[in-house]
Every structure is written in C-alpha cells, then in structure tokens.
C-alpha cells in the first residue's frame, strides 16, 4: 500500500516535470525571429527581423496576429495550408497581404495606424 503510493507520487512528479515544459514549448516563440517567405514563394525582398517577444509584451493578446489561435494547441504559421495562400496554393500576393496593407492587424497597417514601428520598405527589408 505504502509502496504503491510512493510509486504513484514519483510517477506524478515525472509526468509534471515532462508534461509542463512540453505544453509551453508548443506556444512559446523565440524572443527574436527572422521572417522569410516559405518554399514556393520566390523572395524579392530581404528577410525581416521581428522582435516577437517585444510585441507579445506590448500587445498581450496573441490573437491580434494569430487570429485563428484559440489559446491552446499549436500556433499556426502565416503560410500554413489554407491560410495566407490562394486556393490552397502558395501565392506571393496572398502572402504579401498578411503583412502589408491597411488592415491594422498586419505589420505595416498597425505601424501606420499607431505611428510607431518601421513603415518604409527598407526599414523592414534592408538592402542587401
Ligand atoms: C505582432 C504579431 C504577433 C503577436 C502579438 C504574437 N505573435 Fe507569435 N508569431 C508572429 C509571427 C509573424 C510569427 C511567425 C509566423 C510564421 O513563421 O509564419 C509568429 C510565430 C509564433 C510561434 C511559432 C514559432 C516558431 O518557432 O515557428 C509561436 C509558438 C507563437 N508565435 C506564439 C505566440 C503567442 C503564444 C503569442 C501571445 C502571447 C504570440 N505569438 C503573439 C506574430 C505575433
Ligand atoms: C497591432 C500592432 C502591431 C503589429 C500587428 C505589429 N507591430 Fe511591430 N510594432 C508595433 C508598435 C506599437 C511598435 C513600436 C514599439 C516601440 O516603439 O516601443 C512596433 C515596433 C516594431 C519594430 C521596431 C522594434 C524596436 O525595438 O524598435 C519592428 C522591427 C517591428 N515592429 C516589426 C513588426 C513586424 C515584422 C510585424 C509583423 C509580423 C509587426 N511588427 C506587427 C505594433 C505592431
Ligand atoms: C513592418 C515591416 C515591413 C515593412 C515596412 C514592409 N514589409 Fe514587406 N514583408 C514584411 C514581412 C514580415 C514579410 C514576410 C516575411 C518575408 O517574406 O520576408 C514581408 C514580405 C514581403 C514580400 C513577399 C516576400 C518577398 O521577399 O518577395 C514582398 C514582395 C514585400 N514584403 C515587399 C515590401 C515592399 C515593396 C515594402 C514597401 C512598400 C514592404 N515590403 C514593407 C514586413 C514588412
């Protein structure tokens, strides 16, 4: 009886030790990211430095950007199938619209509305 209880405790401790970091790993992004177009889109511009951690802290709500995220499970990337593509196929214009335009949920749209953060092409896509 005593022994099974102890084993139970050990098992519970192990489950916690391994399950918790895994849970948060699925929803944790690096503080600083470099964004690139996915395979299937020819990049005309340079990759974009994106301080994810700073935006997380500033905006609090993940759904501003991850608009299909329900607070648990995997966070989908912008170029996931059926997201910023055209009829399920990679498309430069559809992908471009996820980051630029008037919609204040896009990078450029929000920076223009807020009058903060980079707004010109070369600030985000530095010349090679
Ligand atoms: C200002 C917009 C913005 C906000 C706010 C934001 N994210 Fe992100 N996040 C992004 C972008 C852009 C990517 C890159 C997506 C891609 O690669 O297609 C990303 C990627 C991720 C990834 C994937 C990382 C990887 O290695 O592929 C995770 C996980 C993530 N975000 C979690 C979160 C969580 C949790 C929050 C809220 C606490 C959050 N994000 C808030 C824009 C944002
Ligand atoms: C909903 C609003 C919002 C969205 C969406 C957003 N940003 Fe920002 N971003 C801001 C604000 C506000 C600042 C200014 C922060 C400051 O000056 O402290 C900023 C600042 C920045 C900076 C400068 C950081 C620094 O340390 O000076 C970069 C780079 C940046 N954003 C990139 C992006 C990229 C790339 C995306 C899209 C993937 C994006 N942002 C989406 C609001 C947003
Ligand atoms: C606030 C940052 C920001 C600004 C300002 C910005 N972009 Fe982008 N752009 C991005 C992000 C993020 C992506 C997606 C990641 C990638 O493809 O590098 C992107 C992707 C692109 C793409 C598709 C991928 C590629 O390399 O061909 C094009 C084209 C593009 N941008 C052109 C422009 C042009 C032209 C301007 C100026 C009118 C501009 N961008 C301004 C952030 C920005």
Walk me through this protein's architecture.
- The protein has 128 residues and is mainly α.
- The chain folds into two domains: 1-29; 31-124, Cytochrome C3.
- It is 40% helix and 5% strand.
- The protein is built from five helices and two strands, in the order H-E-E-H-H-H-H.
- Strands 1-2 form a two-stranded antiparallel sheet.
- The longest helix is centred in the N-terminal third of the chain and has 26 residues, at 2-27.
- It is globular, with a radius of gyration of 20 Å.
- The chain starts with a helix and ends with a helix.
- Mean pLDDT is 86; it is low at 14-23.
- The structure holds heme C (3 copies).
Walk me through the topology:
Blueprint: H1 2-27, E1 33-35, E2 48-50, H2 52-59, H3 92-96, H4 107-114, H5 121-124
Antiparallel strand pairs: 1-2
Bound molecules: heme C (HEC) (3 copies).
One heme C is lined by residues 48-51, 54-55, 59, 64-65, 99, 105, 107, 110-111, 114, 116-118, 124.
In angstroms, what is the radius of gyration? 20 Å
* Small molecules held by this entry: heme C
Order of helices and strands: HEEHHHH
Q: Tell me the major beta sheet.
A: 2 strands, antiparallel
Number of helices: 5
The span between the termini is 69 Å
Q: What is the general shape?
A: globular
Look at the structure and give the mean pLDDT.
86
CATH domain class name of the largest domain:
Alpha Beta
Structurally, how many domains make up the residues?
Answer: 2
Q: How does CATH name the architecture of the largest domain?
A: Alpha-Beta Complex
Outline the low-pLDDT stretches. Answer: 14-23
């Amino acid at each position: 009886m005593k022994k099974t209880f102890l084993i139970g405790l050990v098992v519970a401790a192990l489950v916690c030790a391994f399950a918790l970091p895994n849970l948060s790993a699925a929803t944790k992004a690096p503080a600083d990211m470099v964004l690139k177009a996915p395979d299937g889109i020819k990049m005309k511009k340079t990759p974009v430095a994106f301080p994810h951690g700073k935006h997380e802290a500033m905006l609090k709500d993940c759904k501003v950007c991850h608009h299909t995220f329900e607070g648990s499970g995997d966070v989908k990337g912008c170029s996931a199938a059926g997201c910023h593509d055209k009829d399920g196929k990679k498309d430069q214009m559809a992908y471009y619209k996820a980051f630029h335009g008037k919609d204040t949920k896009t990078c450029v749209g929000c920076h223009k509305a807020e009058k903060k953060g980079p707004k010109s092409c070369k600030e985000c896509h530095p010349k090679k």
